[in-house]
Amino acid sequence: GQQVMQIPQYQHVQEGEDFTTYCNSSTTLSNIQWYKQRPGGHPVFLIQLVKSGEVKKQKRLTFQFGEAKKNSSLHITATQTTDVGTYFCAGRKLGGSEKLVFGKGMKLTVNP
Amino acid sequence: NAGVTQTPKFQVLKTGQSMTLQCAQDMNHNSMYWYRQDPGMGLRLIYYSASEGTTDKGEVPNGYNVSRLNKREFSLRLESAAPSQTSVYFCASKTRVLTDTQYFGPGTRLTVL
Q1: If you count residue pairs, one on A and one on B, with CB atoms under 8 Å apart, how many are there?
Q2: CB–CB of A48/A32 below 8 Å?
Q3: In angstroms, how far is CA A60 from the centroid of its own chain?
Q4: Residue of chain B nearest A42, judged by CA positions
Q5: Distance of CA A48 to CAs A25, B83, B109, Å?
């Protein structure tokens, strides 16, 4: 079945550092979404990417959808303690049903 | 708007007991979902309902049943709870128009002893 893999699973950075996390699907996607879950909270939608090669920015966060629509990246600039949490990517298979397949998440911790 | 609500927030069961987790949304969404979240495993889909009157199995349906009572409500039932079902359960909903954005409820933390 469809699989979505996120790397790395854990990321520890110093406040102010930049880093990138990746999401790879075993199948071509209709779209890809990113969610953030704060400790003890529930996943909250961040962004959806639909077009091949699409790049979207939200303040210090930059999201990219690969040309083949099978992978995505999230780049965070000047990491802050408010960025702490687990980031999930989720994709719907092209021509697939109404369900999303989530990656296992990337847990971010920040050293102030 | 309350968004997606779930009850209860916390529950402790003994092995073999049954219970129903309730979920309701007030956003007029067509699709609803039940996920479980375990450490290091991400979000795994248990069941989903693409529209009122339909339900489909997800990745981990064994040991669970669901009911899409109406457009607003989607319940998850554990008939005979097992310790392996100790988890955090999230309900989510989405519209089928233009976007796949899912809106999550606050979750139910279930412990089975």
Answers
A1: 58
A2: yes
A3: 14
A4: B106
A5: 15, 36, 28
Residues 6+ apart with CB under 8 A from B98: none
Q: What is the pLDDT along chain A (112 residues), one digit of tens a residue?
A: 778 999 999 999 999 999 999 999 999 999 999 999 999 999 999 999 999 999 999 999 999 999 999 999 999 999 999 999 999 999 988 877 778 899 999 999 999 9
Q: Which among B43, B103, B109 is the top mutation candidate for probing chain A, defined by the most A β-carbons within 10 Å of its own β-carbon?
A: B43
Rounded to a whole number of angstroms, the distance between the first and last alpha carbons of chain A is 41
> Would you say B110 and B13 are in contact if contact means Cβ atoms under 8 Å apart?
yes
Contact (CB<8Å) A98/B105: no
DSSP letter (8 states) at residue B64:
E
- pLDDT tens column, B15-74: 999 999 999 999 999 999 999 999 888 899 999 999 888 999 999 999 999 999 899 999
Task: Answer whether B90 sits within 8 Å of A42, measured CB to CB.
Answer: yes
